[in-house]
Task: structure prediction
Amino acid sequence: MFGQTTALACYRNNPGEIARTRDLLAIVPKNLSSVLDIGSRDGHFSQLLTQHFASVTALDLTTPKFSFGRVRPVQGDVTKLPFPDHSFDVVFCAEVLEHISALLKACSEIERVARHAIVIGVPYRQDTRLGRTTCNHCGKANPPWGHVNTFDENNVKRLFPKCCPVRKSFVGNTIDRTNMISAWLLDLVGNPWGVYHQEEPCIHCGRRMDPPINRSFTQKLIAAMALKLNQLQSRFSPTHPNWIHMVFQKDPGRE
Result:
């Protein structure tokens, strides 16, 4: 637990995360009373949202352990939120939807409990073949960080049909891309350079992701070939944002 807390603190303090936090706080609707922070984890955003809301409800799969003034920690699942319709002026959901298999159900629940607005933050056009892992227990490939969904502006809009998009912003930039051949080669040798330090377990068997222990010379050679192909790919990859943030206004006429 201490290691996870330290890693999360380091993540919060990197320049990309600082820029993402700043942008989300800038676009969140102001002068409203209550907000639901979905996927609150360490309470980073829950605490910051108290600057703009009198009441913050912090929800996660297990009851959050932090204690902040005007923040109410709650256990719950985004696909079946334990609140009545229109419970919160704003629903804030950042760095969550990319992990949710039942995506349409989650977004329907977010719409249901929002009274006025929804704030969404997700990775933008992420290539989930990069950083892919292979589970040592079940042998199946996993997307990095457990990201089972990818997003662009249009599919985020389609997830909230009862709402009107009123604001959009992009944060960060990257040229990170791979290709079918490199991804296949790395799958073949067990994805030795995947993000095995992630907290998220295997999406197939639910067990912890551990890096490969031993690799043969042939496996190392194949992995090196995949790396060279990725380096070549990066020379021709256009830059695109890391994150897309969108604000939706609840439209009572669409209920």
Summary: The domain at 2-254 is CATH 3.40.50.150 (Rossmann fold). The mean pLDDT is 93.
